[in-house]
Amino acid sequence: MAISSESGEFNYSVTSSTFSASQGGGTEVVINVEGDVSGFGQMNGTLTMVAPAPGVNAGSVSFRGAAFVDGGEVIGTTAEGHWAKLDSEHKWRVRGINLYSNGEVNLSDGTLDLATRTFNGTLAPWT
User: Fold this and answer.
1) What HEC string does the chain produce?
2) CATH number, domain containing residue 31
3) Dmax (CA) of the chain
4) Is the confidence at residue 2, as pLDDT, over 60?
5) How many domains does the structure of the chain reveal?
6) CA angle 22, 94, 60 (to 5 degrees)
7) Is 89 buried (19+), middle (13-18) or exposed (0-12) by CB count in 10 A?
8) Residue 3: inside a domain, yes or no?
């Protein structure tokens, strides 16, 4: 299997977020997003970021969503990965492995930005 160079991008708007306690005294942040994804069109989903303990600047992330493709097809996606706070104020790098119900696999690398309430990044096919 090979990882191709960048081939697409995703551009999400953050529509809401919810914070709750996680095991071990950490925090779980559930972030709802919607936007456009190259090759898929409109996608809505939920990004869940876990900080395993107070003050930690990195942790696990998961994504669950669906793309609403022209012609009526719906493609589900699940992803798992890692987040880390960037040096800049209130920005986080989020990287993951994305599995789609049509059999595709992509690697994603994006930035979650509180100031602009966006989650944007690039996709690279894993073939």
Assistant:
1) CCECCCCEEEEEEEEEEEEEECHHHCEEEEEEEEEEECCCEEEEEEEEEEECCCCCCEEEEEEEEEEECCCCCEEEEEEEEEEEECCCCCEEEEEEEEEECCCCEEEEEEEEECCCCEEEEEEEEEC
2) 2.40.350
3) 46
4) no
5) 1
6) 30
7) exposed
8) no
Query: What is the extent of the structural domain holding 28?
Result: 8-125
Strands 41-51 and 91-100: unpaired
Q: Is residue 2 part of a domain?
A: no
Identify whether 26 is part of a domain. Answer: yes
For residues 104-110, give the mean pLDDT: 95
Residue 99 inside a domain? The answer is: yes
Tokens in use for 3? 């990882």
Tens digits of residue pLDDT in 45-99:
999 999 988 888 999 999 999 999 988 999 999 999 999 999 878 999 999 999 9
pTM of the predicted model, to two decimals? 0.91
- The answer to whether the CB of 124 falls within 8 A of the CB of 3 is yes
Does residue 3 register a pLDDT over 60?
A: no
